[in-house]
Design brief:
The chain has nine helices and four strands; from the N terminus they run ααααββαααβααβ. The protein is mostly helical and 265 residues long. It has three domains: 45 residues, no CATH class; 46 residues, no CATH class; 135 residues, Alkaline Phosphatase, subunit A. A two-stranded antiparallel ribbon has the order 1-2. A two-stranded parallel ribbon has the order 3-4.
Length: 265
């Protein structure tokens, strides 16, 4: 556009100087050479931008880019560190690395949290969430716990209530397993997966009829009904059920004088 414009206009003259001379004028011949040559180049860039914009409709210019379709996960794996809370993670980090990600400092009524660098793998996850797992009648007051460490022993959360809260999102009483506060069954993710035609399994470092692994499988009003829980698990549609325990050995792997058949996995 600049080279085809007739001479006589300011931009036409400048374009002619830039395209028709065999040599560039010296600074004495054209003290504004650099500035004048830059002007048409800027105009060219501006026109080119307008030309490109003219080929796009106003609707296209404002339309959002198509969202990328989220890739569905192939598997959903829930890892539970039974009894593992923030302070257990901090203690392990201090033991292993000599530092922790977050640490509470101060005195009761003036406690603050100091944040450092992530230490453990889960502290580096891009998506994180928190949940309260205490029983339906329980509670947790951090200021009270900070003042009196004995208060947390008054009504500790049982594994059945915590496991049910994690697996169903419903709070229950301490012995309740896969049931609500009234003893009514609530759906767990294993049942949802099986209903969708997928496989589900539960693997534990303790007996499979224990509260935490069983909370993802059964519905029982009492976690102490080990035989009833085991029967439900065996009769379920779970693809995999694995747990620890051998009637001939204790929890430390030492052979017993007489086998104990209280738990079988």
């Amino acid at each position: 556009m600049l080279t085809s414009r007739p001479s006589g206009g300011t931009h036409g003259d400048l374009a002619g100087v830039a395209t028709s001379r065999s040599r560039h004028p010296t600074h004495e011949e054209n003290p504004m050479n650099t500035r004048r040559i830059a002007a048409p180049l800027f105009s060219l860039a501006l026109v080119a931008g307008l030309t490109c914009a003219g080929n796009v409709s106003s609707a296209d210019a404002t339309a959002p880019l198509p969202a990328k379709k989220a890739k569905a996960p192939k598997n959903v794996i829930v890892l539970i560190g039974d009894g593992m809370g923030y302070k257990q993670i901090a203690a392990a980090s201090l033991y292993e690395k000599g530092r922790s990600y977050k640490q509470a400092v101060g005195q009761p009524g003036a406690v603050r949290e100091v944040t450092g660098r992530p230490v453990t793998l889960q502290e580096k996850f891009p998506v994180q969430a928190d949940m309260a797992t205490y029983s339906v009648k329980g509670s947790y007051d951090p200021l009270r716990a900070w003042r009196d460490f004995e208060c947390v022993k008054a009504d500790p959360t049982g594994s059945a209530a915590a496991g049910t809260a994690m697996s169903t999102g419903v709070k229950t009483y301490n012995a309740g397993l896969g049931v609500d506060a009234d003893g009514k069954p609530v759906e767990n993710p294993s049942e949802r997966a099986i209903a969708l035609g997928k496989a589900a399994g539960s693997i534990s470092s303790v007996q499979f009829s224990h509260a935490t692994p069983a909370s993802y499988v059964v519905h029982n009003k009492s976690r102490n009904d080990h035989m009833g829980i085991a029967k439900q698990e065996v009769a379920s549609e779970m693809t995999v059920m694995m747990g620890a325990g051998n009637p001939h050995f204790d929890d430390n792997g030492k052979k017993l004088k007489a086998p104990k058949y209280g738990y079988i996995s």
